[in-house]
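Title: Comparing notes on inverse folding

I've been comparing how different people in this forum approach sequence design from structure. To keep things fair, I'm posting one structure and asking everyone to reply with a full sequence. Here's the target:
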């Protein structure tokens, strides 16, 4: 594998697109008191622990969050990279899922038909990022000093509205990509 050069500690995680027999995608509504992403709708998954591969992490996380014994990875789907995040996305299948979940992180389970993501375009909003260098930055060491022309960074944030729910951000981006490529992929459902 080619090494990734990062400007800081890269947060590596793995998430699962879990499809039911009915071709629904299982999503989690996170509890409101979490320090990260409270109340958001996410794919099952989480951070890699020391010594874990992305495959190990996604199996562990799906088992823990959906309270299932057997998780099969059908295919790697993509690797999403943004800022300091590297998210490995896998298409997974679970055996005997009865709708249960662990309630420490998950408030409820939401099932959304894959066809919804195939047929619905997300709402897209562009946001800009500005560099905040602070007063201690050594401006005198770069051409142009304080007037240096920093590259403007922009990104797009996607929103899907399903029932009374909003699926947005990275989760929406991953699902848009999956649904758009799913028809041509070897994992075709």
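Reply #1:
Here's my take.
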């Amino acid at each position: 594998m080619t090494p990734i050069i990062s400007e800081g500690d890269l947060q590596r995680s793995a998430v699962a697109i879990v499809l039911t027999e009915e071709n629904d995608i299982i999503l989690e509504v996170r509890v409101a008191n979490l320090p990260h992403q409270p109340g958001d709708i996410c794919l099952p998954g989480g951070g890699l622990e020391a010594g874990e591969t992305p495959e190990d992490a996604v199996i562990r996380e799906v088992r823990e969050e959906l309270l299932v014994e057997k998780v099969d990875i059908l295919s790697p789907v993509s690797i999403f990279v943004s800022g300091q995040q590297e998210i490995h996305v896998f298409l997974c299948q679970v055996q005997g899922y009865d709708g249960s979940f662990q309630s420490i992180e998950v408030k409820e389970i939401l099932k959304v038909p894959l066809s919804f993501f195939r047929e619905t375009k997300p709402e897209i909003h562009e946001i800009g990022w500005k560099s905040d260098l602070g007063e201690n930055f050594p401006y005198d060491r770069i051409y142009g000093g304080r007037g240096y022309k920093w590259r403007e960074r922009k990104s797009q944030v996607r929103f899907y509205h399903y029932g009374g729910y909003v699926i947005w951000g990275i989760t929406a981006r991953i699902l848009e990509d999956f649904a758009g490529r799913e028809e041509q992929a070897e994992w075709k459902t």
